[in-house]
Amino acid sequence: MEFLALLIAIMAFIFARQAISRIKALTARVATLEAAATSMAASGVTMAAPPPIPAAPIAPEFPRDDIAPATAEAVPSPTMREPPPVETIASTAPRPTLEEAPSPIPPAQPGLEERLGTRWVVWVGGLTLALGGLFMVRYSIEAGLIGPGVRVLLGGLFALALLVSGEWTRRKESLAAMPALPVANIPAILTAAGTVVAFATVYASYALYDFLAPASAFILLGIVAMGTLAAALLHGPALAGLGIVAAFATPILVSSGKPDYWALYVYLAVVTAAAFGLARIRLWRWLAVTTIGFALFWLAPCLECGPSMIPPHAFHVIAGFALAAILVVCGFLFGPPHQPGEIEPVSSGSLAAYLLGAALIVLSSGHADSTLIVFAGLTAAALVVAWRTDAAVGAVAAAAVLTAIVFLEWTVRALPDLAVVSGGAFPGIGPRPVDDSITSHLVMATIFAAGFGISGFLAQGRAVSAAVPVIWSAAATFTPLVLLVALYARISHLDRSIPFAIVAVILAAAFAAATEILSKREHRPGLAISIALFATATLAALALALTFALEKGWLTIALALMCTGTAWISVQRPIPFLRWLAAILAGIVVLRIGYEPRIAGDAVGTTLIFNWLLWGYGVPALAFWTAASLLRRRGDDAPLRMVESAAIVFTVLLAFMEIRHAVNQGDVYAPSADLTEVALQVCVALAMAIGLERLRLRSGSIVHNVASILLAAFAGLATAFGLLTLEWPMLTGADVGGLVINLLLLGYALPAVLALLLSYAAAAGKRPVAYGNTIAGVALLLALAYISLEVRRFYHGPVLTGPTTDSEQYAYSVVWLVFGVILLGAGFVFTSQRARLASAIIIGLTVLKVFVIDMSVLTGVYRALSFMGLGLVLVSIGWLYQRILFRQRAAAASSEGAAQ
To answer: I want to staple 824 with a disulfide (CB 3.0 to 4.6 A). Which of 176, 628, 781, 839 is the partner?
Structure first.
């Protein structure tokens, strides 16, 4: 009794708190309404009176004969008399504007107590009921109160009671016309708790007490799961989610020593059909997607069972594909309705998912003929469904990609050498032989190519949106080309093959005919892009024909020429997609370099310049420059910049690779570089930077601008870390050659001249002054290094190592002074301040050398001559400045003053 009293007190306290909360909410609402009324009264707005209710007509008791007819017409009858007007707004009051109108009163949000009492308590109660049934069974086991049979019976009765309670409460709410809260539906929660208890009871009968055989437990658990899905029709999506998880988890809970895949996949087909049916009736897209995900999950662990288990796996994907086509795909058979021209993600994704499952079966079975037939059949079915409804057109693209993956994987598995790059083979790819015949793959490839090509061509002009015909045409062009490449690589081992070249020419003719036919049709959405795709495929097929008919390495050239052809087509037909396609092709060719920088492998040859590098890099570079010129006619955009970048990359690599080939006797993979190679690379980089500086003035391209700076930076780094440090002849002891025509002329004099020209080109291109002066400083440093090394060459011969004599040390000072005087003279003659500044730097270095090195190192007459010569030169320089430069400036200033 004390416990009961405490419980009543707690309930009374809760009810009191609820009443107080409701009183507070009502008080707040009244205050809000009063404030709104006060605001409206202050602005001159009053509430309009409701229209009066017309009175019922009253018939006169006696006829009024004394009233004349005219008078009777003038007097209104009681039923037609208008009510007196109601004054709503004062004539002098201004009409309130929209900004002055009071805002609507927001609905009151549920408080913490309301959420606790109406929502959370219901959820916790449902969970408690489910756990209570489980804990009751556990307690009975631990205490030994009742036997296993009774426990199972009580669990079943408790589950049944919960299910009956859920249905009874649902019907009571329906009869009372009292809608349940969507987040705390008591009937749904009671039903969910009942299904959980029923599921646990059946599983305990099987796993704990061995009352049920695996087959019986499997059937009962499936019935519970299916019943849960059926109850979701009445109780909402939460129960559907519980049912689908329970249905697909049943095979995990019930296992046997000899798994029966046929029974598993038949069961999964039934569950999938029920889930798809429920998703179709209630239009729950999430349920269909979840079901497909679980179905593919059950396919993955079963793929390692060997070829003998192909039939049940095939049945699984075929049944799932058929059910998805019948119930999920919009606009097809019993699927939901759809808008014409709209590609629906769930419709396309459901078919694509089962196509993926079929492709996985093909790959795991080693390309068995039966799996290829199943995959081909589902692909054909996907094309048929997509032909009937645009909602599934996305599956066409997925089918094309999966077809390419299947055949390319077949090629790589048969030829593991194709998967080997400089870093080694890809993980998981080894020389595993395949047992399927080439003939079957040839037949299947022909069927796939014809199916995609013909359907993609015939689908043009049937849709009201542009995306649908573009996907069809992309699949029609992409799939045959990829299949042709895969078969060529597998059968001909990437060697010359005239039969495959003929097939490529035939394919190009078919694409060209399709392009011509589509060009004559009236304009339809997406037709222009489809025409461009077929035209590009024509060029691709011709490029492949060239590749098949010629030796290795021509594929790079063919793709580069295809980029030029695509750019030309984009000029004739200004379709943005074609510009991107040209850029993509250029990117593919650039990536091709990473696979084999020599393009043709060991067949690059040893001939100077005229070797495979000239064709492998020169022809693509020329093709990219041409393509960039064509693309520039219609503006500067990202695709143009990508093609221009590819052109510059191939041009630079052509020069650098030819240099390495020439210096290292044909070995472009030589581990080190010498002074000759570094000098040639610096000269080439500077020359290209000069060319790009001139080119950017005309094009205004940011690519030319950045490339010129990068090449100049590369030349500077190679000069600093190569010519002046690592490859410095006095350190390496390299043989520099003759007295005048030697390696020093190439390594230091020529780069100095090119750097000077680049500084003037940068100044003409409106570069910052500091940029040009920096490059001019590098040129001065290289020139000083050249004359110093030439002095060294005169004293030491071709090898510049050994001690320095007094005569040589004095010669350095003399040569530096002469060089400074020459620069000063050039500055006076050409009126160049930069040359005079360079002269000052050289003479300053000479003065520093004389006072720091010559004074301490030289002895005798050489020390005296060094200081005497330096003094004479400095005095002469001062005289030149006074007599020539400043006199000219003074004369110019006086003439200006006289003119004023």
So the answer is: 839
AA identity, residue 499 = P
- Distance of CA 60 to CAs 51, 72, 461, Å? 26, 13, 78
Question: pTM score > 0.85 for this model?
Answer: no
Tens of pLDDT, residue by residue over 729-738, are 999 989 999 9
How many Å apart are CA 120 and CA 203, to the nearest integer?
29
How far apart (Å, rounded) are the C-alpha atoms in residues 880 and 586?
59
User: In this structure, what token pair is assigned to residue 309?
Assistant: 């288990």
Task: Spell out a b/e string for 836-862, using b for 16 or more CB atoms within 10 Å of the CB, else e.
Answer: bbbbebbbeebbebbeeebeeebeeeb
Report in angstroms the alpha-carbon separations of 383 from 336, 351, 377, 455, 837: 19, 10, 10, 8, 77
Report the amino acid identity of residue 34: E
Phi, psi of 421 (to 5 degrees): -115, -170
Residues 364 and 305: beta-carbon distance below 8 Å: no
**Tell me, what amino acid is at 239?**
L
Burial 347-364 (b: 16+ CB within 10 A, else e): bbbbbbbbbbbbbbbbbb
Task: Enter the tokens of residue 444.
Answer: 């299947």
pLDDT tens-digit series, residues 829-881: 888 888 888 988 988 888 888 888 877 776 766 666 666 766 766 666 665 55
- What's the whole-number mean pLDDT along residues 342-371? 90
Q: 3-state DSSP call for residue 474? A: helix
235: DSSP letter: H
- At residue 346, the 3 state secondary structure works out as helix
Are the CB atoms for 547 and 554 separated by under 8 Å? Answer: yes
pLDDT in tens, 274-295: 778 778 878 888 888 988 998 8
